[in-house]
Amino acid sequence: xxxxxxxxxxxxxxxxxxxxxxxxxxxxxxxxxxxxxxxxxxxxxxxxxxxxxxxxxxxxxxxxxxxxxxxxxxxxxxxxxxxxxxxxxxxxxxxxxxxxxxxxxxxxxxxxxxxxxxxxxxxxxxxxxxxxxxxxxxxxxxxxxxxxxxxxxxxxxxxxxxxxxxxxxxxxxxxxxxxxxxxxxxxxxxxxxxxxxxxxxxxxxxxxxxxxxxxxxxxxxxxxxxxxxx
Length: 230
Prior knowledge:
By secondary structure, the chain is mostly helical. The protein has helices spanning 24-36, 44-65, 71-95, 101-126, 131-155, 167-180, 196-226; strands spanning 8-9, 12-13, 16-18, 157-159, 186-189, 192-195. It has a single domain (15-226), classed as Four Helix Bundle (Hemerythrin (Met), subunit A). A hairpin with a 2-residue loop joins strand 1 and strand 2. The chain starts with 7 loop residues before the first strand and ends with a helix.
């Protein structure tokens, strides 16, 4: 998704980006190909707006799907548009040599937090997931985002994936889970029936919290070694 370049602006150095997602290499090639063919009238800011707007649309489609199941297809389309806007904006800036590393990093994280809030809010209103599960997902996501941002500032490395899962892989899993709602809403676990997204959400919460804890421990160890007590 991004080159591991370092850009210095007024003493500022852009963090090295690390994406070890399963699709990262192929995705990077595809994004560069698209960026080279994007009309000049379209800027990286336009794509950032598309990304957050698509997440809001996905949340609205989840909400609407409570009364009309066909809106679930709108969620999948919106997730695809979110991928396009959220993933292509930075690549477009780099291909055009129009990098704004501080502005881009800050704006991306703010818009991601807003977009995920819209998405999970719509999902909670749809009834496909319990409100507490949706809230737990939001809290776990924000904790993971905060940990990644702090690591970026202190270590100069922006890690975008955990255990071969990055933003793109998570969108694909969410899209597949959404399509599964077309056929069934519940799943059996230990003899009991639960909503599919309640089970998936609980697993996702555990996964994100585990990733945050492991990452925090790893980064604390690295920082301690760099700044040992004398």
